[in-house]
Design brief:
mainly alpha; 2 domains; about 60% helix
Length: about 240
């Protein structure tokens, strides 16, 4: 694996082009990343840069939300976004800088919300990524749940949408139906149709086509697995074939 999306930053120019708190963060780590074999910059498009830097920044702020910062943060991030060994030092630098900045998580979340206001699926990808990182230690802590709730509100997700996203990661009452976005009174035909639609909609190839960086395809893979697991539970309960 090459450095890929974590390639060397093109000086502070890229950060200035993106602007805002995420641009400042990028400028702060300019020169700390390695170039891959193709000489790729930090992301193939500005949108990739905003997505991955925003995810790192919000993950770093989340690590401080419960007052516990552990060395496993980069490992947890690496399960969501592919990080080449030679790029690890750069990612750690970005985490450390994001944790230390005076900008609150709200500023990063607002910039992401603005950048992807016409692409809410990408904002949902960010939330899914944060959930995966939060539960990497085996539990979703109360402070982390409050933090994720606050980020979701800034992203414009209402309570029902937040519960649907959360149900893919933690046990909630009726969570299998929540994951599929269905009422428990839905007919068997509706359950099957909804499952087929979600599988097509959330296929990793389609996620990449709509803008999810290829390095973050694990987010789509895990979402699809959660959808299939929810359907399997309902199908087993109903005896569907």
């Amino acid at each position: 694996m090459t450095a890929g999306i974590w390639g060397k930053l093109g000086g502070v120019g890229l950060g200035m082009a993106i602007g805002g708190p995420l641009g400042a963060l990028i400028g702060g780590v300019a020169g700390h990343f390695l170039v891959d074999r193709e000489g790729a910059l930090f992301g193939t498009t500005p949108r990739d840069v905003v997505f991955t830097t925003g995810l790192v920044a919000l993950a770093a702020k989340m690590a401080k939300s419960d007052g516990v910062v552990t060395p496993s943060e980069v490992e947890a991030f690496g399960k969501v976004v592919q990080v080449a060994p030679e790029a690890r030092a750069g990612v750690e630098r970005l985490f450390d800088l994001a944790k230390a900045t005076t900008s609150g998580f709200e500023a990063y979340a607002r910039q992401l919300a603005s950048a992807f206001h016409e692409e809410p699926s990408l904002l949902e990808d960010v939330l899914d990524g944060l959930f995966h990182i939060a539960k990497a230690d085996g539990a979703l802590h109360e402070a982390e749940e409050r933090y994720l709730h606050a980020v979701a509100r800034i992203f414009g997700f209402e309570e029902t949408a937040f519960r649907r996203i959360a149900a893919r990661h933690v046990a909630l009452a009726g969570d299998a139906y929540l994951v599929l976005g269905l009422d428990e009174a839905a007919s068997d035909a509706e359950v099957k149709a909804r499952h087929r639609g979600l599988v097509a909609e959330n296929h990793p190839d389609r996620a990449i086509a709509r803008g999810l960086p290829p390095e973050a395809v694990a987010i789509a893979d895990r979402r699809l697995a959660a959808i299939n697991a929810a359907y399997d539970r309902i199908a087993a309960e109903r005896g569907l074939r």
